[in-house]
């Protein structure tokens, strides 16, 4: 018999289709296919939904096992839910009424660091599992472990805030932030990390390595998109997929494309994604870069998940030029599902997912000249594409990943549940 699992995410993919939200939602459906009683609760706020007076809960679709939880106001620096008078009582009632055996947390943004202790207080018998999708707990600069201004990366936790570049906070505030968050995470029974690199960062930060298990993310099965016939005179087509923000490296990619044009390289670049919820300065920078781009570059704009196969069919290479320590980018798994080799920054979880020289190529992050050189090599050597694409491995299936989680859950649940 499988446990009752409540899945918590920091948004719903219908409102914000980020990689964490998509994976959490896919895993929830895989739990259901495994005959689990499962409930998906996505936190949201007024960025995506207006508050509805009289209740903290909202419907997201016609499903009876998915809902939104309006999470009020959130202190991003301290990762604290500041609207506890509304949030805590309403969510406590949901916990008591649904009574899960496992609460699987996928993020604490919007929910607040207080969430695990609230669950433990309301349901002492419930086991708490938390997947660490990024470094939010470690780094107050949106969990990037990158200096906000210099874009310099760091791997060791920065206890006094010198390395993240946030203004307006003292060293004491940074120290107390780390102490407070680690204290609240003591009640989490098991952490899951999709990459060894991310696990190491949390071990450096003070989490016992025995409390973190590495389980790779998975994807629902799809039919691979057809491949183009490279080497018949058609230019190589490079594709970028995802949101456009200062840390994903799309600006680096556009700068690299200008260098390819200057080198008279025959290529095409399709940018899939849009600039959403970014600063005015970055938005204007991207608009300027697109305006100055040559005919080789097409900005395709936002896309829906069900369009990915068709969009992948029109590209030969997928580029993931992120300048921060990506953990387990969804786009790499999507590229591999469709047999596309990946050119990616050789850092973090990206370096784990892409085997340099086997199913993709690593490049130095935040280096347009290096990226342009590699893209030129790819565009002028059809044998390289044939070699790398032939060695692409499909990612794990989401149902298999769900079974790994469920096996772990069964070992954790209360004894009377196991006996039943």
From TrEMBL:
Transmembrane stretches, start-end: none
The family database entries (InterPro entries) matched by this protein are listed as: Glyco_trans_4-like_N, Glycosyltransferase_grp1
Signal as UniProt keyword: no
Keyword Transferase part of the UniProt annotation: yes
Q: Which domain of life does this protein belong to?
A: Bacteria
Query: What keyword terms does UniProt attach to this protein?
Result: Transferase
Stored Pfam families: Glyco_trans_1_4, Glyco_transf_4
The record ties this protein, via SUPFAM superfamilies, to: UDP-Glycosyltransferase/glycogen phosphorylase
* Name of the protein in question: Glycosyl transferase
Q: What species does this protein belong to?
A: Thalassospira profundimaris
């Amino acid at each position: 018999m499988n446990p009752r699992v409540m899945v918590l995410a920091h948004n719903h993919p219908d409102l914000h289709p980020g990689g964490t939200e998509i994976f959490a939602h896919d895993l929830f459906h895989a739990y259901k296919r495994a005959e689990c009683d499962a409930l998906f609760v996505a936190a949201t706020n007024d960025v995506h939904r207006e508050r509805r007076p009289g209740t903290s809960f909202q419907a997201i679709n016609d499903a009876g096992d998915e809902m939104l939880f309006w999470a009020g106001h959130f202190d991003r620096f301290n990762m604290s839910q500041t609207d506890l008078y509304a949030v805590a009582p309403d969510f406590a009632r949901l916990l008591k009424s649904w009574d899960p055996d496992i609460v699987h947390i996928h993020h604490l943004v919007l929910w607040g660091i207080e969430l695990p202790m609230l669950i433990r207080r309301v349901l002492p018998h419930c086991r708490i599992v938390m997947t660490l999708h990024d470094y939010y707990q470690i780094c107050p600069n949106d969990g990037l472990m990158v200096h906000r201004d210099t874009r310099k990366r760091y791997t060791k936790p920065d206890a006094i805030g010198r390395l993240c570049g946030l203004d307006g906070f003292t060293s004491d505030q940074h120290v107390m932030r780390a102490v407070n968050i680690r204290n609240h995470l003591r009640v989490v029974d098991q952490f899951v990390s999709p990459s060894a690199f991310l696990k190491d960062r949390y071990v450096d930060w003070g989490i016992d390595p025995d409390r973190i298990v590495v389980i790779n993310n998975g994807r629902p099965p799809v039919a691979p998109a057809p491949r183009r016939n490279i080497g018949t005179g058609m230019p190589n087509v490079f594709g970028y997929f995802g949101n456009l923000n200062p840390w994903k490296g799309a600006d680096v990619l556009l700068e690299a494309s200008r260098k390819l044009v200057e080198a008279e390289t025959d290529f095409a670049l399709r940018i899939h994604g849009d600039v959403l919820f970014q600063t005015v300065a970055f938005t204007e920078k991207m608009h300027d870069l697109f305006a100055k781009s040559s005919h080789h570059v097409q900005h395709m704009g936002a896309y829906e998940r069900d369009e990915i196969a068709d969009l992948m069919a029109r590209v030969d290479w997928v580029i993931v030029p992120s300048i921060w320590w990506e953990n387990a980018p969804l786009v790499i798994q999507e590229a591999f599902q469709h047999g596309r080799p990946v050119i990616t920054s050789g850092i973090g979880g990206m370096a784990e997912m892409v085997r340099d020289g086997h199913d993709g190529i690593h490049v130095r992050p935040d280096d347009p000249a290096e990226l342009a050189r590699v893209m030129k090599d790819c565009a002028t050597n059809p044998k390289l594409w044939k070699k790398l694409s032939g060695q692409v491995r499909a990612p794990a299936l989401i149902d298999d990943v769900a079974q790994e989680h469920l096996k772990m859950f069964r070992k954790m649940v209360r004894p009377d549940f196991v006996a039943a």
